[in-house]
Amino acid sequence: MADRLFPALETPPGKEALRFPDATLTYAELAAAAGTLARDLPPGRVAVWATPTIHTSVAVVGALLAGVPVVPVNPKIGERELGHIVSDSAPSLVLAEAGAELPAALNALPRKDIQLTGTGGELPAEPSPEAPAFIVYTSGTTGPPKGVVLPRRAISSTLDALEDAWEWTSEDVLVHGLPLFHVHGLILGILGPLRRGGSVRHLGRFSVEAAAHELAGGATMMFGVPTMYHRVAGEVAEKPELAKAFGQARLLVSGSAALPVHDHQRITAATGQRVVERYGMTETLMNTSVRADGERKPGTVGVPLRGVEVRLVDEAGVPIEQTETVGEIHVRGPNLFTEYLNRPDATAEVFVDGWFRTGDMAVRDEDGYYRIVGRKATDLIKSGGYKIGAGEIENALLEHPGVAEAAVTGEPDPDLGERIVAWIVPSGEPPAEQELADHVARLLAPHKRPRVVRFLDALPRNDMGKVMKRALGA
């Protein structure tokens, strides 16, 4: 029989498993509620109305115990996208909290309300490691979203590799306030602690004060996205009691997008903590991370995780051996997805000799640490014969006191091929365009300076805090 995904549910420790603002479950209570649900689920796939609640957590654990693939649905999803997901994944059932109002496409499915209680009993047999655990839909930049089929071995191998990288144990208590329809908040943030036999405290909605309260009260780790850590950086500098609470954490981890070096520095100055960054995506779960016992280099996503192979290749697909040279990241390992649902064409397109082509561009330093410079499609700018990563220019701009937020894109230029455009949310009176260009030229190189600066009130972001660059040019 395959090893259990959640060994602690078979022999529950006498401790808290999940804590949300309105409910808490011990391991024994979670085993009863999720086990009862698992025994009641029909075969097929289940859609989960994935609100940031304890009910979503029970639904997902119950479906995984039953070996039924989970399709998490973002509660803010639009009608057209939801219609596509429902027709593409064809779930036999939707799981939702009692009283939750569902959109029409989900209302048409048979519904089961999630209960937080249940009866004891033997848990179902563990399915094969290759059996699908999740079908997670990626935000489609071209065409409708694709359903990424994640097998159980991808979940277990990633969480076990993070146990190694982060020295993650059953004693750890994780705090986070991330959404539960995506890899970061759900698989890492809820399933990660449960696989370790530890505890998770979900804030329901993130606030710096709420996270600090938990870290001062026994929580040891926090997961967040850069928008959250940007708020942390601002508040810990002003409030010593918050800085003290964050200083007590064993590990602060940021992901889903690059954390600006300026925010790293502000958090370290106020708390003594060095935030750990890692790199992953829906199709691969986690690939690299700064290790808990390794050097913390702000702006890098660390080294390959145990069992994961990472390489950089040039435009001809030839592996790049030299350091500090931009290439596309390819990944190979047990952490990979098996296919895009119903899309053999798209699946074949992203694999080459067993390597997954991520579309992300990076450089590798002499210590083997990777630094992401952006997406091949939107963040690699070819200007005046140079290949320039948008990420390093964004970091440089954020070091200017007049810049609160920055995004960098390329647009066609008859002379340069592409010119560098900076989109700036100012922190007060907008700085002069030439001043920003000179600032970047001084820190990086003259060919990396923005040729155009456009000021905005806010950058367009998705639910995970990533800047939607395609919306900037529109």
Overview of the molecule:
The protein has 474 residues and is of the alpha/beta class. The chain has three domains: 7-149, Rossmann fold (3-Layer(aba) Sandwich); 185-339 and 355-375, Rossmann fold (3-Layer(aba) Sandwich), CATH 3.40.50.12780; 380-473, 2-Layer Sandwich (GMP Synthetase, Chain A, domain 3). Helix content is 31%, strand content 27%. It has 15 helices and 26 strands. The strands form six sheets. The chain has a nine-stranded mixed β-sheet with strand order 2-1-10-9-11-12-13-14-15, with helices on both faces. Strands 16, 17, 19, 20 and 21 form a five-stranded antiparallel β-sheet that branches. Strand 20 and strand 21 (370-375) form a beta hairpin. The longest helix is centred in the middle third of the chain and has 15 residues, at 152-166. It is globular. The N and C termini lie far apart (53 Å). The mean pLDDT is 93.
List keywords for this structure.
474 residues, alpha/beta, Rossmann fold, GMP Synthetase, Chain A, domain 3, 3 domains, five-stranded antiparallel sheet, 15 helices, 26 strands, globular
Question: What's this, in brief?
Answer:
This protein is of the alpha/beta class and about 475 residues long. Helices cover about 30% and strands about 25% of the residues.
Overall pLDDT:
93
Morphology call: globular
Radius of gyration: 22 Å
What is the C-level CATH assignment of the largest domain? Alpha Beta
Give, in spatial order, the strands making up the sheet with the most strands: 2-1-10-9-11-12-13-14-15
Distance between the amino and carboxyl termini: 53 Å
Q: Runs with pLDDT <50, length 5+?
A: none
Our estimate of the beta-strand percent is 25-35%
Strand count, sense and barrel status of the largest sheet are: 9 strands, mixed
SS content category: alpha/beta
CATH H-tier superfamily of the largest domain: ANL, N-terminal domain
CATH architecture of the largest domain: 3-Layer(aba) Sandwich
Level of helix content?
A: 25-40%
Domain AMP-binding enzyme C-terminal: 392-466
InterPro entries: AMP-bd_C, AMP-bd_C_sf, AMP-binding_CS, AMP-dep_synth/lig_dom, ANL_N_sf
Family: Belongs to the ATP-dependent AMP-binding enzyme family.
Pfam families: AMP-binding, AMP-binding_C
